[in-house]
Amino acid sequence: MTAPVIDYDTLTLQEKCEAIWEVTAAEERRLAKMQRTQPGVFIFDGHQRLQHLLLEVADLAVEDKENDTGSITLSIPFEHPVAQWMNDDIGRIKRGEGEFFHIDVEHNGIRVTGRYDEKTVKKDGMGQRMLHVTFLTDYENLKWIDVWSNPFLPAIFQFPRIFLLAGPSIWVLKTALLLQLWRINSSIWQIPDDPMNPSTWLDGLDMSNWDIVIKPTTFLQDMAAGTTWSLFMSRWGKWHDRAEMILKDAELSVVTRRYRKGDPEPWPGAFLTGIKDGALVVDIVDKSGHMEGAANGGTIFDGFTRTIRQLIGDFIEDAETELTGAPTWPSKFYQDMFGTPKGFPFVHFPADSGIETEFTTTPSKGVIINAGGQSAPE
After folding, report:
1. In this structure, is residue 309 part of a structural domain?
2. Could you tell me if residue 366 is inside a domain?
3. DSSP letter, residue 138
């Protein structure tokens, strides 16, 4: 239902105040309804098949960290049928449901998913038993992916000894991850020129049975976006360990989401190339806006300093230019009640709010760069 359009220029002052109050009250009712909505908790077996829908839990806590593994903790009475199913490891294995099980927590359009990590049965002094289960969010999967020195060659012959890939950071990170997944899941003796171009996937790359898939970003798309360049280098390291500093430097965020049957297409053409129910879709996005103009510093006296970062000649280092003059506030600034536009961050804590605040600053590190080489022969 679309909200009616009000022409405030034709209203009296009292009518304007009443109209604003009605809109404010309607928004408060909408927010209250969202807060009362209970999260949906779905339990899947080791093969990503839905087994249970939990309508009541004693305790539920979700922590979804940026570019790292978060946790989901769940507590239910031990006598609950779902608790019995989760605690029955041998039974699940015998029934072909797998040793591990997975969880989806959905609330107001947000979906956080994870895999079972540990469970504990506790009994209190009254004899009541509770099952406490800890899940690790699905980012944990990315921490166990090895980066082969040369994903194109067999294990017995790896040359060169170091994996190197340079380019715009989103394309570099996605391509490096895709090549390792490709080696795990299928034959890669024929690699297209741009593995992140989905039009080449129909020539032999079949991801329809992959547990982890990459949302494509082509080299030209990332070039046009102006993403900071980087050099991905690894000698038998983990993808997460090698990507961590690049993600921080380019201010990028890894976004993971389990595809479930009935969801919209994760990217145009995903259904054509094939994607299985329960596949983990990995994307890397820029949420910072640091290349578009954002608050990258400031003082307590002058407030935020708005700057725009621009790449210099080597496409890796950047320079900041201060933006002067009054900023043009985007119209969406007043439309989102749960955030602010990334170029215009703000927060307001009234003096009588009683909210505890804490501000942390970190100085720059690594201000000296050493380089070496060999002089030319005389």
Report:
1. yes
2. no
3. G
Bridge partner residues of 44 (DSSP): 50, 102
Domain co-membership, 271 together with 168: yes
**8 Å CB contact between 177 and 142:** yes
Same domain, 152 and 281: yes
* 97 and 180, same domain (yes or no): no
- Measured from the Cβ of residue 157, the count of other Cβ atoms closer than 10 Å reads 7
Cβ atoms of 346 and 334 closer than 8 Å? no
Per-residue pLDDT tens over the stretch 274-328: 899 999 999 999 987 665 545 555 554 444 454 455 555 544 455 555 555 555 5
321: containing domain: 288-349
Three-state secondary structure readout of 238-281? EHHHHHHHHHHHHCCEEEEEECCCCCCCCCCCHHHHCCCCCCEE
The pLDDT tens digits of the residues spanning 12-57 come to 888 888 888 988 899 889 888 888 888 999 999 999 999 999 988 9
Cα separation, 306 vs 341, in Å, equals 13
* Chosen domain end from 137, 156, 185: 137
275 and 292 in one domain? no
